[in-house]
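stuck on this chain:
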Amino acid sequence: MSYISVFKRLIAVYPKDHQFRFSNEMALAFEVSASEHLRFGKKAFARFVFEEFTALVFGAATEWIAKWTTDVSVRSRYLPDLRMMPLPWVPQEARRRCLGSERCSPDTSQ
């Protein structure tokens, strides 16, 4: 398993709303920066990977704390759970039958 795939898997520790908005951008930025640092030698590359993985974990912790402590109406990064949003081309009656008694979760991390 390469360091890029490990980084992409570690992005999953972020809340789902943050992942939806930023995961592709984060992975691309890491991949570009990693290829640049690889040219500077193994020691510089190892330091870069360590710092990025550490920042990823601390960033995820910060996002979870912000998600838990900030009111939903205030937090600009709160997004609806797109997994629970109805598709516009599905008729309303079919949506009602499909959803039944399921309710949208206020926590988008599940």
In short: The chain has a mean pLDDT of 79. The radius of gyration is 19 Å. The first helix runs from residue 3 to 10. DSSP finds four helices and no strands in the chain.
